[in-house]
Amino acid sequence: MAIIVNMPRLSDTMEEGTVASWLKKVGDKVEEGDILAEIETDKATMEFESFNEGTLLHIGVQEGETTMVDELLAIIGDEGEDISALLANPTAAVEEATPQETTEETTENVVEAVTETSSTDIPEGVIVVTMPRLSDTMEEGTVASWLKNVGDTVEEGDILAEIETDKATMEFESFNEGTLLYIGLQEGESANVDDLLAIIGPAGTDVSAVAANFSAGATAVEEATPQESPKATAPVIKETPKADAAPVATPVAVAPVSNTTGRLHISPLARKMADDKGIALNQLVGSGENGRIIKRDVENYTPAAVSTASTAKFVPTGQEDFEEIKNSQMRKTIAKRLGESKFTAPHYYLNVEFDMDNAMAFRAQYNTVPDTKISFNDIIVKACALALRQHPQVNSQWFADRMKLNNHVHVGVAVAVEDGLVVPVVRFANEQSLPQIGVSVRDFAGRARNKKLTPQEMDGSTFTVSNLGMFGIESFTSIINQPNSAILSVGAIVQKPVVKNGQIVVGNTIKLTLACDHRTVDGATGAQFLQTLKGYVENPVTMLV
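Request: output the structure for the sequence above.
Response:
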């Protein structure tokens, strides 16, 4: 009997998935445990294995396409089995198999009822494109750039715009064809998910009433379908009732913007290249569509020669100038979460300085072992893990009605990525060897920069280490990564005069700052933890005992 395979929920926050690749094709035999496909979320690409066996009879989502969780992904059954009835009405089959899960289908029927009653009010062939949900945490998006202008012909698969989310700037492609009749957001402007983004339809169609009445229509659909989640990459067709005496909104093409203003027409790639090369954006002249600055403009940039003809006059010729940069969605999310931590958890800070001479000698000797390489950060992480076992109060979490003292030690290691920060977790760090910790941290760091970490690898930390020593920072303070109770800031190892045995000698020291949540960690408790940590860091051989 044929079995419908739906888009799986691969994390607790996942609402949609994109098929990165199929490992099976129609007609192939599938065994239980075989990898069917690789599914992309906004955080990772994960393998999806089959829990059934049979023949792959149908693929519902092609490579590169996106669909919501629980929607048709594939059908597995007996070779040659007739699945036409399932393809004609897959939701009915799912409902029959799982009668308790009817909310989504009921919601879809309500939407159909709403749209059918007003379908005659929208010109034939007109499609309303709304702001897509491109990540599980996305609440609004910003149009970084339009790749099409009003009046342009749009083919299925064409890139309409670049949308900036809280995770990244992503290309948004059209799943429809026609003429771009209306643009609802100009470059640099933001809107909530499901707000009007654009309208596509037959050339010459008057869509002013559709644009004007979209908000009212969207509200009606929202009230009828409170549980519906929009598809992330597929444009949503919204039908809106026609209001009497509706104001006429004339579609306006995206106008070129001068590079001397606060907002520039520039592609994300060109912006990054300019930042890397230290080129002021207002010095660039765009050669792209509508004066948009693109990659070749940065590559071909030549600094203008400075005239010296009037230098003897000493006449000030400087001009005040500035650039306004829209906050990315990732930056907004970081600001929100760190703000919540800083202003809800009463932070205090404990500063210490450790002698690193023994640690340096220990590391040098340890790394003489073939195929072994540990860093000072690995030593710090391991020392923290062992110290936390002796001071569970520092390894705790605060809740409104209770405090949770963790007996396990999962150390989060802060990793800087483009436009943000992620914290992968070394689980049971106290039970891992120094080389194991080193391998884990290097693997996490590499995959974090490529957005290949899974949600599970970034959840569950009980304590966090943030190290800026590699950037030459001697000391700093960090904001607690809630729900942790503490975070350790690690600076650079500095060579300087120190006093040993009553003599001034050359020594190597490191400064660390422990930020604590005073609700769970008292000052004396934090100090005792640092004393234990000092014993391990200054005598790392004790970690091997």
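The longest helix spans residues 208-224.
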